Amino acid sequence: MYKKRHINPKIRNLRPKKRFWKKPLFWIVLTAILIIAILWFALFYSKFQIKNIEIFGNEKVKTEDIQQNAFANLNKKILTTGFLNISSRSVFVVDTNNILKNLLNKFPEIESIQIQKKFPDSITLKVKERQPVAVFCQSADNCFLIDQNGVIFQKRQSTSSDMVITKEQSDKNIFAGENIIDKKIMDAILKVQNNLKNNLQVNVKEAFVSNPLIFTTSENWKIYFDPTENMDAQIIKMDALLKDQITPDARKKLQYIYLQYKDRAYYK
Question: What string of DSSP letters covers 97-157?
Fold first, then answer.
């Protein structure tokens, strides 16, 4: 009994001690510290915070206005609680979708923006502005420039020699940036306009969006289309009439051309 009591402690002391770095807890703690350090470095290190915003492609919208709006929407929320609000403007997490959304809402003159990150502390914005193709008027004193997609984007006081687009009256208020004319209808309007101008040197003064779709030319005769049918086929019928049956002299007395009936066309 005496030997057993005195030998066992010695045997226990002779066993090799387990190194601390071989313990699972050590690696768990070390991994957590490394992850926190990397996250902090990526999110808050000053060299990675957005300091420069470069703007390209804008003409109507001021560069300073775009930059100011973009800087105001740089921050990405990291953690939000009742008493804690942590955000970052690191190039790694900058919310480009939020910047894009706010810029397009703020500046209806802008059609699209391409955003690119430039490490370590910049982003570039390539701006494409809307190009006017006509004037849309809800009333005589409420007119906007409109682009090829049917989006109105800037108030216009005078229609001058522009093609004016109108539609059936509505009490709804319209606003810059609204898609007021369906893209397919807008494509049809521009096709008719280009066809008349290029082939006959006749301009479109007004396009009235309804069913039928009605055009008034610079020679004061009207053309009626069915917007639900094939517009290309109706344009071909119009060309055939104006080239083969209606002479330039006859156009002086022309009142209208009806194209909305299948396989038939009428004029007076």
Answer: HHHHHHHHHH-TTEEEEEEEEETTTEEEEEEEE----EEEEEETTEEEEE-TTSBEEEEES
- What's the pLDDT tens digit per position in 103-140? 999 999 999 999 999 999 999 999 999 999 999 999 88
Q: In order of start, what are the domains of the chain with their CATH numbers?
A: 47-129 (3.10.20.310), 134-267 (3.40.50.11690)
- Full DSSP string of 5-26: HHHHHHHHHHSPPPPGGGSHHH
Distance between CA 108 and CA 265 in Å, rounded?
41
| CB 57, CB 126: distance < 8 Å | yes
The band of 42, judged by pLDDT with boundaries at 50, 70 and 90, is confident
Query: Angle between the 231-240 and 183-200 helix axes, to the nearest 10 degrees?
Result: 20
Helices 96-106 and 63-72: angle between axes, nearest 10 degrees: 130
Residue 113 burial (C-beta neighbours within 10 Å; 0-12, 13-18, 19+): buried
